[in-house]
Amino acid sequence: MRRWYVERDALDGDDIVIGEDSSPEETVRRILRDTGLPIGPPPV
Hints:
With 44 residues, the chain is mostly helical. It has one helix at residues 24-35. The longest helix is centred in the last third of the chain and has 12 residues, at 24-35. The protein is elongated, with a radius of gyration of 14 Å.
């Protein structure tokens, strides 16, 4: 982590912060929705 971390590095317009109050399920759903990946059980 030390290689990419920059103190006080501002986010650019493409970054989204997911709040610490977001549950793991909410976080995964948001990532899937934002990336256009299907939400639901994996295909069989």
